[in-house]
């Protein structure tokens, strides 16, 4: 009787574990550090005052990023005054080639996709998580770390 009870309990445990198993995404992308893209329509003169090449990408310290974003906002505000740009609002979204591809596969094609990596516990990290999850990307393998995202 004890053996039957043990076997039945063990069988129930196995069935419960099987229910907990979640199927892995069909495609997993590896992006060790979450990245965030800030996209804005700005006057070309601004690009001469900030580091990097037009159309390029470079890693910057958080202080430099904050300086660049202030410059972009200032430029956007002055552009609004002369109505030279109808779309001067900055857009911020999860970025990096892997994240962009995974997000596109998930939202555009309905392909089960996930990302492996880490993001910071800051506002940029939360933006990355919100943007990717709202597009159906599995984030069960994304880890949060203390500090800034992509630093």
CATH topology of the largest domain: UDP-N-acetylmuramoyl-L-alanine:D-glutamate ligase
Indicate the CATH class of the largest domain. Alpha Beta
How widely separated are the two ends? 60 Å
Instruction: Give the C-alpha Rg.
Output: 22 Å
Tell me the overall shape: elongated
Main sheet, how many strands, which sense, barrel?
A: 3 strands, parallel
- Unreliable runs: 83-87
Q: Please give the number of β-strands.
A: 5
Look at the helices and sheets and give the structural class: alpha/beta
In percent, how helical is the residue content?
40-55%
Q: Tell me what the CATH architecture of the largest domain is.
A: 3-Layer(aba) Sandwich
Spell out the helices and strands N to C: HEEHHEHEHE
Strand order of the largest sheet: 1-4-5
Characterize the quaternary organization of these chains.
single chain
Fraction of residues in β-strands? 15-25%
Number of domains: 2
Protein name: PfkB family carbohydrate kinase
Organism: Trifolium pratense (Red clover)
Family: Belongs to the carbohydrate kinase PfkB family.
Pfam families: PfkB
